[in-house]
Amino acid sequence: MTDLSTTIADRTFSNCMMNAAGVRCADENDLNQLIASPAGAYVTKSATPNVREGNPEPRMKSLPGGCINSMGLPNHGLDYYLDFVLKDQAARPDKTNLLSIAGTTLEDNLAMLHKVADSDFNGFVELNLSCPNVPGKPQVGYDFDRVREILTQVFAFYDKPLGVKLPPYFDLVHFDQIAAVLNDFPLTFVNSINSVGNGLVIDPNAERVAIKPKGGFGGIGGTFIKPTALANVRGLSLRLKPEIAIIGTGGVMNGTDVFEHILCGASMVQVGTQFGFEGTRIFKRLSKELSAIMAAKGYQSIDDFKGKLKTFDD
Ligand code: RRO
């Protein structure tokens, strides 16, 4: 039998697959479906301090094998998600889940983290530094000095497990620069990658952009972004200190994609776009597919191949 469990910090998850923040995790109904599924954990929709409507519609467009979105952080506000995770934690104290927060200012992030710090929450916070879709707010993850400033202020008081959700980087120098910042902090994990920001999808018949916000620019997910996601997981895995686990996200449609993320160094793999298409039954399919690959190769656990990607120089 293959074992799909994984460990991050001192927490064990029964399955190394889960949802990616933003997809089918914005309300209690969605989250309860994740709890009832074989996913090893769930992450809640990125929260702001107060309820947000998000951007005007149409703000998401499905494509063959992918999607573009400019949701603009629609969410029920931190209290809603904190209340949910606290109740779930009381009901299932042996499970660890992720609470995503995405303030549009540093002050909002600090205020939310103070609230979480003062609560009984003992799961992981995923601090989203990479939302591409709030008009006028650049993705913080591309400003390395700002990331350092934010993490300095966060870790001055926050001492529960915390990770960051990063945007994709496209130059090896940028991998070096972000890793140098991240390695200076007691992060539990980094999650790489968020959607590939500010792509443009066009309807050639209508001669018009596919979504309304920001003149049609939006975050790209799905099969097209897998090479970028794998490069980021691998690039960070080679540079981050071993105490920082990597959650791999991007372009996961099947068990082979999960296998590849783990080969690149991911301890956990999140599924966004394709989970949106299939719903929670995807976790059974991916588990079956990953198990079959592992069994064929004689691997019993994900540690047998995690981070063991070969190059032509090995
Ligand atoms: O809500 C969004 O528009 C959104 C967010 Br916060 C994010 O982090 N990534 C994304 O593709 N969309």
From TrEMBL:
Assembly behavior: Homodimer.
Q: Which UniProt keywords apply?
A: Cytoplasm, Flavoprotein, FMN, Oxidoreductase, Pyrimidine biosynthesis
Q: Does the keyword Cytoplasm apply?
A: yes
Protein species of origin: Secundilactobacillus paracollinoides
Q: What is this protein called?
A: dihydroorotate oxidase (fumarate)
Q: Where in the cell is it found?
A: Cytoplasm
Similarity section: Belongs to the dihydroorotate dehydrogenase family. Type 1 subfamily.
The processes (GO biological process) annotated in the record are: 'de novo' pyrimidine nucleobase biosynthetic process; 'de novo' UMP biosynthetic process
Q: Which reaction does it catalyse?
A: (S)-dihydroorotate + fumarate = orotate + succinate
Q: Which GO terms describe its cellular component?
A: cytoplasm
Q: State the Gene3D superfamilies in the record.
A: Aldolase class I, Dihydroorotate Dehydrogenase A, chain A, domain 2
The reply on keyword Flavoprotein is: yes
An example of a GO molecular function for this protein is:
dihydroorotate dehydrogenase (fumarate) activity
UniProt-listed PROSITE patterns? DHODEHASE_1, DHODEHASE_2
- What cofactor does this protein call for? FMN
Q: Where is it mostly found?
A: cytoplasm
InterPro entries assigned:
Aldolase_TIM, DHO_dehydrogenase, DHOD_1A, Dihydro_DH_chainA_dom2, Dihydroorotate_DH_1_2, Dihydroorotate_DH_cat, Dihydroorotate_DH_CS
Record pathway: Pyrimidine metabolism; UMP biosynthesis via de novo pathway
Q: What is the enzyme's main class? A: oxidoreductase
Annotated Pfam families? DHO_dh
Recorded E.C. number(s)? 1.3.98.1
Domain called Dihydroorotate dehydrogenase catalytic: residue spans: 4-294
